[in-house]
Amino acid sequence: MKLVKTLASALLASVALATTSMACEMTLKSSDTHPDGYPTVEAVKHMGKLLEERTNGRICVEVFHSAQLGQEKDTIEQTKFGVIDLNRVSMGPFNNLVEETKVVSLPYVFKGVDHMHTVMDGPIGADILKAFEPHGYVGLAFYDGGSRSFYNKVKPIKSIDDLAGMKVRVMQSDIFVDMMSALGANATPMPYGEVYSSIQTGVIDGAENNWPSYESSGHFEVAGYYTLDEHLIVPEVLVMSKASWDKLSAEDQAAVRQAAKDSVPVMRDLWKAREKASEEKVRAAGVEVVTDIDKEPFMAAMDSVYEKHVTSDKLKDLVARIRATD
Ligand code: GTR
To answer: Which of 30, 31, 32, 33 to mutate to test the pocket of ligand 1 (most atoms within 8 A of CB)?
Structure first.
């Protein structure tokens, strides 16, 4: 009897599985470095749900979270070749590939998160999304990445002087390396997934990120000083492989674009809630947070970064347009 029951439930389970996979003619593979439940992961899942509903279950999305498909820089390459269909990454690791992404990765380029939203939701954002296409990607939507601040395990950073000689991990882009040099620190570009152990073993003293990443990565456990200098507000982007995109009908392409667009407000709500929850968790864990930091000297130190990286007319124009946006 027990065997019959087991066989029957196994049969039912396989029928259920077959029904789900049969319904999806196409399953788009999506990558994210963050764990399940993180706002970016949930936003892409939401996008997938919308797409599945709107295509009567023909097109589905499967999100591979927690860097299951690799670290961001590698997944960006795989996305170009269509091995990965969708990818949610920071714009930082795209800097050396898509020039236009550099402008939104410049320190203090935005006046705040609201300003970033206005810029990215408007014509400048539309131009940056389009800029991905000649490089093998279709830019679909921008997500929030909050503002990034420094954390380390040595001492509270209360002024630029405290950063002198510190070894700080940055995302893999020359802008961030030069940003750290301008602040008198030693930049160590490395993949996100290596940061925790590198702080633990002393390869680096600290890194920089937003509240949700500082919390979800566990970095706060090994680097207990966080200074809210908010030097970067780098939006995140959801791209699709141009190779995968070209396999879709015009109608399905429009459905993908719309579903991605519709996931943005959902992401922003999730983000706001997660920022608060992460801050609470980190503070409760006893992290020392420096809030009364004078940002002026940090901003002033960035001139050299702009001089070095904003050289083409295209980038100069984009920066000017961002600055002219209220
Ligand atoms: C996070 C961002 C990730 C990744 C990470 C990093 O804030 O969401 O996409 O870029 O930072 O520092 O590498």
So the answer is: 33
